[in-house]
């Protein structure tokens, strides 16, 4: 993330590490300052609504169309580089949340699902080959507990089971 996003990736990683420390009850004053600053910046410069509207607009082009085969994939909320696990779950027309909402917490707090870029690529390839989700808006999610960044660029020969040209 840091390599591809530069200072933005650094800030995301720093924020994530501070949140993990906070959840574990080990946050320092510096961690708490990082969390407060990052969240304040996001709230004051939030362009997520524009991104969501653009995605929804693109999907509306496909929705209800039967004159050609299509499949519309949206990555799960916590889509990021990481190790390939080889497993994933598919959801159609839903954002999957795990666990129960706790009293007083945001509906999404600690409940969002994610998937590594490597596993998302496999999910997309499986759909291209299997065509099980034609005419559907879908997403895939899986185990992201190991958040070790994976390689951003791979060749077919470097992927387990790859056959290369």
CATH-level-4 superfamily name of the largest domain: NAD(P)-binding Rossmann-like Domain
**Class based on secondary structure composition and strand pairing:** alpha/beta
Widest β-sheet, arrangement of strands: 1-5-3
Any idea how many domains? 2
Radius of gyration: 18 Å
Question: Can you walk me through this structure?
Answer:
- The protein is of the alpha/beta class and 165 residues long.
- The protein has two domains: 1-46, no CATH class; 65-165, Rossmann fold (3-Layer(aba) Sandwich), CATH 3.40.50.
- The chain has helices spanning 2-5, 7-23, 29-44, 48-62, 117-130, and strands at residues 72-73, 78-80, 89-92, 114-116, 137-141.
- The strands form two sheets. The chain has a three-stranded mixed β-sheet. Strands 2-4 form a two-stranded parallel ribbon.
- The radius of gyration is 18 Å and the shape is globular.
- The model has no long low-confidence stretch (mean pLDDT 81).
In brief:
40% of the residues lie in helices and 10% in strands. With 165 residues, it is α/β, with parallel strands linked by helices.
